[in-house]
Amino acid sequence: VDVKIYNWPTDLSANRQFILDMVEQCKDMGVSVGIYTTKWDWDNIVGSWNGVASLPLWWANYNG
């Protein structure tokens, strides 16, 4: 699940639920799921939240 800062609402709780719903849909479909994001994007979209911490994390590191 690509969680990047494009057009997300400002409601962090709704964003968290949307991510949970996407993850659940992937699992229901038998798709392996993980999270792709940056710290800045994640903080702005969901705040301080670890609701999907059990999933693999692929984070972007553009500073080398």
Shape: globular
**How would you state the average pLDDT, rounded?**
93
Biggest sheet character: 3 strands, parallel
Helix percentage range? 25-40%
**What percentage of amino acids are in beta strands?**
5-15%
Strand order of the largest sheet: 1-2-3
Task: Enumerate how many helices there are, as a single number.
Answer: 2
Low-confidence stretches: none
Determine the N-to-C terminus distance. Answer: 23 Å
Which radius of gyration do the C-alpha atoms yield?
12 Å
Can you count the beta strands? 3
Order of helices and strands: EHEHE
Which structural class fits the helix and strand makeup?
alpha/beta
Organism: Pristionchus entomophagus
InterPro entries: GH (IPR017853), GH25_Enzymes (IPR051595), Glyco_hydro_25 (IPR002053)
Keywords: Signal
Protein name: Lysozyme
